[in-house]
C-alpha cells in the first residue's frame, strides 16, 4: 500500500473501480433504449464508453438532442431516467466487486474515504447500504452534481492530502481541476488505451487492480 502513504483522503470512483459494473451499465443503457434503431443505440454506446464519469442526465440529453437530433422532450427524458434507474438498482445489487476492493477498503480505517461517481447519488447510497459497504465511507456522492464539483466539496470540508482513484479520462480531469493526484485502475476500464497513453506521457501512477494496493 506504499502508493497510498501520505494521503489522508482517498476518493474512489464507483463503476470499474469498486464495482465491476462498466459492461453491465452499458447493457442497462442498451435495455433502456431498446425501442430505438440499433444504429442510434450503437452511436450512443460509443459516446457513453468514451465519456465514462459523465452522468446519465447529460448522456440521455445528448442522445435525444445530438444522436436523434430531435427537439428535447422532457417527458421522454424523464421516462428514460426512470427506466434506467430501475435497471441500475438491479445491476448494482448483483454485480461483483472488483478484485481487491473489499480488502483494500477494510484496510483504510485510518483514512477518510469517499465515493465521487457519475452514477446517481441516491441509488449509490441505497445499494451501498444494502450491501453493507457504506460503513467504509465518510461520504457517498454522485450525480446530478458533476464529479469535479463533488471533489471540490470534499476538499473544502476535509483537511489533508487527497488522491482520486478512477478508471476514466473524466476521473483524471476531475482530479486535475482540483489539483489532486490521480491513480488509474486499468483492468475494468472501458477507456484503457486512452488512459494508459495519458498516464505514460504524464507519469501518472496506475495499477491493474486494487489488490496491488493491499499491503
TrEMBL record:
<dbReference type="GO" id="GO:0016787">
    <property type="term" value="F:hydrolase activity"/>
</dbReference>
<dbReference type="InterPro" id="IPR023214">
    <property type="entry name" value="HAD_sf"/>
</dbReference>
<dbReference type="InterPro" id="IPR023198">
    <property type="entry name" value="PGP-like_dom2"/>
</dbReference>
<keyword id="KW-0460">Magnesium</keyword>
<dbReference type="InterPro" id="IPR036412">
    <property type="entry name" value="HAD-like_sf"/>
</dbReference>
<dbReference type="InterPro" id="IPR050155">
    <property type="entry name" value="HAD-like_hydrolase_sf"/>
</dbReference>
<dbReference type="Pfam" id="PF13419">
    <property type="entry name" value="HAD_2"/>
</dbReference>
<dbReference type="InterPro" id="IPR006439">
    <property type="entry name" value="HAD-SF_hydro_IA"/>
</dbReference>
<dbReference type="InterPro" id="IPR041492">
    <property type="entry name" value="HAD_2"/>
</dbReference>
<keyword id="KW-0378">Hydrolase</keyword>
<protein>
    <submittedName>
        <fullName>HAD-IA family hydrolase</fullName>
    </submittedName>
</protein>
